[in-house]
Design a protein that fits this description.
The chain has 304 residues and is an alpha/beta fold. The protein has one domain: Alpha/Beta hydrolase fold, catalytic domain (Rossmann fold), CATH 3.40.50.1820. The N terminus is likely disordered. A 9-stranded mixed sheet has the order 1-2-3-5-4-6-7-8-9, with helices on both faces. Helix 1 runs antiparallel to helix 9.
Amino acid sequence: MKKHFKSILITLCLILTSQVKALTTIRETVKTVDSIEIEIVLNIPDGKGTFPVLFYVHGGGWDHGTALKTPGGPPLVSASTMCDNLGVVFVGVDYRCKNQNGDFDKALQDVMDVYNYAHKNAKRFKCDFKKIGFAGGSAGTPLSAVAAQKISTCKLYIGIYGKYDFMNKNLGGYWPSQQTLEKYKIVTPEEQKRASAITQIRKNPPATLLIHGDADPTIGYKQSVEFAAALEQHNGYAKVLILPGIAHGFYKEGSSEAYISATKEIMEHLIQFFKIKNPNRQGVIDALDSVVNEVKKNSKEKQK
């Protein structure tokens, strides 16, 4: 392997209610651009064979990191819960944010380069590229949603409190600020269109699940409603889960009932559209219960 590729393999054992599940985590450098490393992080089931692949683009407002270090690209927060139980490779996608002099076009190129790197190493990573999907949370949704429309083989998409339209100013939410739009070069009508997945819906769009809270002040839930309607107008499948009274940023492991509800919806979406045979649903549910109970236990101990 080339010297600039870093590979760290860690076998994680997830203790569930009734059994132990294992996965392997791999972290490697995809490329170095402007002295900045763009990484890929994979959670891979320990079973034999190849598996469907879900690429996740993280949020964070396009902030964080330093001039020479990205915030990193973690897989979906619930990946460790579902990886081995469902038999899915979860990929965390790294990209340049504002602090790394990134902009939307640079970041989208990083996302595509991570995708292509995984494709090139599909055998080593046990990836079945006939079954791929994209997902994103918050600021990761514009990038992931556009990528899902660009890649014709993408089977499914999952967006969590996402933004899919930079052109319509009447959908609610204060993010992104004008300063962020200028820094990430989403100012002109052409730039806004290029960053809006709603303007780039392809023929036979990926089956889409959109999750949003109706009390979200950061990105209005109408973004998800309008994107779903546009997908349906293009004869696509779109399901919207609107969570009453839930604000932005709720999708954190063990943080709330909203997290559990959303994870179960994500699980069923993956099973249905990846056509997963013999999924261990109960294993996922047991793992969710275990995490929530641990969070509650720690919370009680802090209150003592």
